[in-house]
Amino acid sequence: MADVTVVGSGIFLRGSIQGDGDLEIRGRVEGDIGVAGEVTIADGALVKADISGRRITVRGAVAGNLTGEEAVRLEGGARVVGDLRAAAIGIAEGALLRGNVQTEKPASQKAAARSGARAERPAPARAETRKAANNGAARRGAAAEERAAPPPPVVPALKKGARAALRKRAR
Amino acid sequence: MAGTVIAQGITIEGELTSDDDVLIQGTLRGKLVTKESVSIENGATVEADIAASSLSVGGQIRGNVTAKDRVDLMPGARLIGDVKASRLTIADGASFKGNVDMDV
Questions:
Q1: Is A152 helix (H, G, I), strand (E, B) or coil?
Q2: What is the pTM of this model?
Q3: Nearest CA among A94, A110, A105, A122 for reference residue A52
Q4: Pairwise CB contact (< 8 Å): B16 & A16
């Protein structure tokens, strides 16, 4: 045993799980999960958390976004409400998903994301929600790029008259 | 095998409530409550108040410990905090700083 961390079926954990090992969850977790290894959400588990890991396999219920460095797999019986994002995404028959799906390496370029996303989109999400979520994802992507870029100018670019309006509001 | 294992390299922050055994080899910060036994292995770091039926310590704890049954400090254990238990053993080589309440 030793290497893999197990949150047993009788467990309720509220908080965060971080680190670099594998993780298996059979109980209830609310909070935040980020590990470097594989994450398995077992059948009967109940997770309310954003999850990131190298590979994520879900057989239980998850409310939260799943981000896999390599892959996210939803097995039969999985119930997921949240967005999936990974280089490879598999959704088996019998898995339920509500959310946006994006096949992309979390850190890779946007162009690659666009082609990847067009190639495979197995999410049974409704068109409007997908569109809205896509916009959100694009915005998030833009934000990430901004963060990577050199620091923005010290003086924020405000619209003409906005500063005066702000000052007025402050008063 | 214990129901829940916190392996080496993993850090859990928050409140952990359990019905079965907990084995800690990694890091736990916050609070741990279980109806069964807790075992904190050599190399583990715990900064949490712990309530359990029994507790065996080989690693480091900073926090108060309450055990319904017993607390065992193994050689190499390091406990800073108060202990409330009906039985307590401290092995040679364990370090402990805190109060003991054994309901005499």
A1: coil
A2: 0.69
A3: A105
A4: no
